[in-house]
C-alpha cells in the first residue's frame, strides 16, 4: 500500500465542503486516485510533500465528487430558469484566458497531472506511429 497524495482535510478545505457525510467516499477516492496518479506519472516516490501531486489529487477527488453529483458544480452558470428547470453553463471557450477566474475542478486536475508527467528530453525526436 502506498502513501496517499492528499488528506480528507485538503479536499474539504479546497472544496469548501461542510460536514463529514462524504468523508468515507473521499478517503476511498484518495487511495484510488493516489495510485492512479503514481502509475500515470511513472513515479512511485510521489508523496504529499510534492505540491503538484497534492493539488492534482485534491482536484481529482473534487472533480469525481462533482461528476457523481455529491457536491455542487464548480462552473459558473450563465442562465437559470425555474419553469421546466434549465441550467446553462458558460462555454469556457467564450472566456478569455485572463478572465478565467472560475476554472473547473477537472481542468485543475488535468493541469496538475500534466505538470507531473515525465517530459521527453529536449532535442529528442518524438516518434509517431
Structure, explained:
There is one protein chain. The longest helix is centred in the first third of the chain and has 19 residues, at 23-41. The protein is mainly α and 129 residues long. The chain has helices at 8-15, 23-41, 51-67, 105-116, and strands spanning 77-81, 86-89. A two-stranded antiparallel sheet has the order 1-2. The chain is built from 4 helices and 2 strands, in the order αααββα. Mean pLDDT is 83; it is low at 95-100. It has one domain (8-116).
Spatial arrangement of strands, main beta sheet: 1-2
Strand tally is 2
Count of runs of 4 or more consecutive helical residues: 4
How helix-rich are the residues, as a percent range? 40-55%
Written as H for each helix and E for each strand, in order along the chain, the element string is HHHEEH
Q: What is the approximate shape?
A: globular
What's the SSE blueprint?
Layout: H1 8-15, H2 23-41, H3 51-67, E1 77-81, E2 86-89, H4 105-116
Antiparallel strand pairs: 1-2
Helix pairs in contact: 1-3, 2-3, 3-4
